[in-house]
Amino acid sequence: MKIFLNICLLIVFTFVLGACASGKKLEKTITATLHLESFRNHFTGIMIYDPKSGDTLYRLNSDKYFTPASNTKIFSLYTSLLLLPKQVPALKYCSVNDTLFIEGTGDPSLLHPYLNDSSVTGFLKGFKNISLNQNNFTDSKFGPGWAWEDYDGYYSAERSALPIFGNVVTISNTDTLAVLPNYFISDVNLITNTINREIDTNTFYFDPTRKDTLEIPFKTESIVIKTLLERALGREISVADKMPCEEKMILSGILTDSINKRMMQESDNFLAEQLLLLASSTLSDSLNTKTAIDYMLKNHLKDLKQTPRWVDGSGLSRYNLFSPEAIVYVLKAIHEEVPKERLFNLFAQGGESGTIADWYPGNPHPYIYAKTGTLGNNHNISGYLITKSGKTLIFSFMNNHFTNPTADIKKQMQFVFEWIRDNY
After folding, report:
1. For 274, phi and psi rounded to 5 degrees?
2. Which positions ≥6 away from 160 have C-beta within 8 Å?
3. Helix, strand, coil % in the chain, rounded to nearest 5
4. Which distant-in-sequence residues (6+ apart) come within 8 Å of 195 by Cβ?
């Protein structure tokens, strides 16, 4: 018995000693990387966490606030996973006499250029008299702190209650000019211009020599949304000032994960914004981003040690402030609640898909499943790392205020990730 106990103690001692040695090597490697020229003049925050052991393997400035950019979408994903059903609530409606009254929920998928959902139009075509309420949207069309000059960029589409065609005009010019929705074709001017659209009107500009596709946000005035929906249905609809009923039915749309996946892999700002509006539709009759954010902070995120400043769904705003520790906290919560196969399918995969298709390649399989976040002079990446020994680690690696090329930062980050993969 004594010999058996001694053997057990020796095994435990060897394991602990090995873990300590591995941890010291990891710390030494990361610290040496951060002393390179490319990291000397900006603010870096890192947290690497082992969810199985509960150990934090490395941390640097992990409790400090950083501009997260699109790492904000990790919080939008968490909100979506907790508050939205398997299929998105595509429409709220009720019937009074011979009229169907409807209002949007923020669902972004209606005739979206990529999602291309027709659940709403297919449902509405079965009714003769339809009245649309657009007064349940109580938010602003742009998020707090968004750059005003981005209004004509595809990544800055306006937020709305009933998005249609992704709230963008898609223009392509191969053999002939194609405009989707065709409603705007007469508003497209085939000339070269420094802007894609006038700031106050739906007047668009497209260089006739370009051969790729251009997506330009359109202004989402009520009359525009009404007209686009009428054209999609092939009939006129009326306008309601409010819903005439207290109880509303909900039309289910596409799978919520199809929106989550595109948001996370392609870093789609519009989908991220609309997901928070969708979440707010499950909490209130009014659509407002702040409703969803406040609910999450007061309930599911109340234990965060560093309460984030969280103002939008996409991370376009530089008002957002998150710590690496807060991001790891949410990634850990998602990891605990979502099966591995489904979870990793939502995130971009290193060397294979999304925003990291050209970075962090596997050997031979992907080992990084993560969300990037990039704004001028800022680049972050947070997610999951699979080591060669089979461990799943959760990490957040944030870099703010650098002036050298982003590629230099990425190269050193890749070195760190590969070392952890191969040695831990």
Report:
1. -70, -30
2. 104, 106, 137, 141, 167, 220, 225
3. 40, 25, 40
4. 152, 205
The answer to whether the bond into 308 is cis (omega within 30° of 0) is no
Is 353 strand, coil or helix? coil
- pLDDT in the model for residue 23: 66
Kindly state the tokens that stand for 207.
């260089």
User: What is the number of residues in the chain?
Assistant: 424
CA distance linking residue 333 with residue 337, whole number of Å: 6
Q: Cα separation of 373 and 354, whole Å?
A: 12
Query: For the chain, which domains are there?
Result: 26-76+289-423 (3.40.710.10), 96-254 (no CATH)
- The count of other CB atoms within 10 Å of the CB of residue 54 is 8
Q: Report, as ranges of residue numbers, the positions in the chain whose pLDDT lies below 50.
A: 4-20
Q: Which residue has the tokens 């306006």?
A: 158
Rounded Cα distance, 114 and 378, in Å: 28
Would you say 44 and 61 are in contact if contact means Cβ atoms under 8 Å apart? Answer: yes
> What pLDDT does residue 5 have?
44
**b/e map 380-400, b = 16+ CB within 10 Å:** bbbbbbbeeeebbbbbbbbbb
Tokens for 270? 């519009």
pTM of the model: 0.93
| Coil, helix or strand at residue 270 | helix
290 with 278: CB under 8 angstroms?
Answer: no
Q: Which of 37, 41, 44 shows the shortest CA–CA distance to 66?
A: 44
What percentage of residues in the chain have a pLDDT greater than 70?
95
d(CA 424, CA 406): 27
